[in-house]
Amino acid sequence: MASPQLFSPLAIGGLTLPNRIVISPMCQYSADGEGSMTDWHTIHLGQLALSGAGLLIIEASAVAAAGRITPGDVGLYSDANEQAMARTLASVRAHSPMPIGIQLGHAGRKASCQAPWEGGKQLGLEDGGWETLAPSATPYQDDQRPPQAMTLDDIDTLKADFVAAAQRAARLGFDLIELHAAHGYLLHQFLSPLSNQRDDAYGGSLENRMRLILEIFEAVREVFPADKPVGIRISGSDWVEGGWDLAQSVALAQALDARGCSFIDCSGGGLDPRQTLDVGPSYQVPFARRMKQEVAMPVIAVGLITEPEQAEGIVFSGDADAVALARGMLFDPRWPWHAAAKLGASVHAPKQYLRSQPHTLKGLFG
After folding, report:
1. Chain segment 122-151, per-residue pLDDT in tens
2. Whole-angstrom distance, CA of residue 305 vs CA of residue 103
């Protein structure tokens, strides 16, 4: 029986993953109010780091305080943020060899909101909210206060914030950086003509709308260790007529590929509440399939990937080089173990758990 492709190694730049299962960044909205990690993150990331996946990417970490989705979002913009993250990483790394990456982002006009379990609505300025930034003064929803259209000085500050966060990530020893340009957050807002109505060098043509991401990628790539990957997560489409679409995504991916981007993670939507899509198993995999035809860098697929055979089929068929799971990993933090058992593969487990190996699966833990 051939070994499953899902459990074969994957090289991403100078980093080799032991298998092709990626744990997606998942916001926890549980930072201390100043963007610093808490004990929750040690518990949450610790259990995921024992799962046997090939890579763990921690949640979207804001590069500026105003870039947090909620007051409980993690940030990497202060010494206190960096020190708290260092403590969490030290605890996790002491018990897991899993590579760990970080997603860096800025929420733009989707910032200053309640946590989802509180309703998720925009916070008023009198309720602890703050003024938001965007390419243009167009709110995400009509009932929200408009964001401030970014000046060129604001754009320069944003680029410097990404660089500073990347430098902190390098000091923390992260194995990988993923830039968050998906789900309607600030970098995605610059890409889409629905949210970007600028008439300067950062708006209008596709070349201009891509400019900020390309500049930020190049600046981050310059300050992060050359042997460590810097990649990107994008939304392949806004799923709204006249918005960002797959053809434009291909152009962006090719421009990033030419600049040495290490990988692309293909998600979708999140920019406009008018989006229309049919959600079902593997519903975003077609984005990854197209990218595999257009770029040389590794491609990661997402989108209701829940079953081992489904994930194996995506990788085996060449639709993507790896699959990323988010909610599925929260529901089953041992998903890679169960996938290995189902597919006849071996997976890493901590020595403290070796005796949990079922007696019918003698090779499961290697």
Report:
1. 999 999 999 999 999 999 999 999 999 999
2. 20
pTM of the model: 0.97
Round to whole Å and give the CA distance between 324 and 345: 18
Query: pLDDT per residue over 68-112, tens digit each?
Result: 999 999 999 999 999 999 999 999 999 999 999 999 999 999 999
pLDDT at 283: 85
Of 37, 32, 90, the closest CA to residue 59 belongs to 37
Give the CA angle between residues 181, 185, 190 to the nearest 5°.
Answer: 70
Cα separation, 332 vs 244, in Å, equals: 33
Reduce the DSSP state of residue 116 to 3 states and report it.
Answer: helix
Of 117, 102, 38, give the one whose Cα is nearest residue 70.
117
Is 29 part of the annotated catalytic residue set? no
Helices (H), 132-234: 152-171, 186-191, 206-223
State the catalytic residue, choosing from 29, 77, 140, 185. 185
User: Where does the pLDDT of residue 280 fall: very low under 50, low under 70, confident under 90, or very high at 90 and above?
Assistant: confident
Instruction: Return d(Cα 33, Cα 345) in angstroms, integer.
Output: 42
First to last CA, the chain: 17
Question: How far from the centroid of its chain's Cα atoms is residue 230's Cα?
Answer: 12
Q: What's the CA gap between 10 and 21, in Å, rounded? A: 10
DSSP H stretches of helix in 34-96: 39-49, 79-93
